[in-house]
Amino acid sequence: MATKLYVGNLSYSTDKEGLERVFSEYGTLVSATVIVDRQTGTSKGFGFVEFEDDACAQKAVSVLNGREVDGRRIRVSEAREKDR
């Protein structure tokens, strides 16, 4: 089962490809998304990556949480389901 991770404190210059490049070192990605403002199209400073394998996702969390990417220390944790 795929595991989705939340990635916070992203640089506003980090795009989907940059996110994929950083996280794909730790396993096969199902998806990578940078959340953008609907009106301006600019990054909101966070995104999500989804790994095929839970062990790879957990390794990415332990290695990348607090690591500097594009000049900012990112926060990485397992994503929580959105309350509706």
How would you describe this structure to a colleague?
- Strand 2 and strand 3 form a beta hairpin.
- The chain contains two helices and six strands.
- The protein has 84 residues and is of the alpha+beta class.
Question: What keyword list fits this structure?
Answer:
84 residues, globular, alpha+beta, four-stranded antiparallel β-sheet
What topology emerges from the helices and strands here?
Blueprint: E1 3-8, H1 16-23, E2 29-36, E3 43-51, H2 54-64, E4 68-69, E5 72-73, E6 75-78
Antiparallel strand pairs: 1-3, 1-6, 2-3, 4-5
Quick summary:
The protein is an alpha+beta fold. The chain has helices at 16-23, 54-64, and strands at residues 3-8, 29-36, 43-51, 68-69, 72-73, 75-78.
Number of contiguous helices: 2
Q: What fraction of the residues are assigned to beta strands by DSSP? A: 35-45%
Which sheet architecture does the biggest sheet show?
4 strands, antiparallel
Overall 3D form: globular
**Reading side by side through the largest sheet, how are the strands ordered?**
2-3-1-6
- Alpha-beta classification: alpha+beta
Flag low-confidence runs.
none
- Element string (H = helix, E = strand): EHEEHEEE
Helix content estimate: 10-25%
Distance between the termini: 23 Å
Mean model confidence by pLDDT: 95
Radius of gyration: 12 Å
Based on DSSP secondary structure assignment, what is the total number of beta strands? Answer: 6
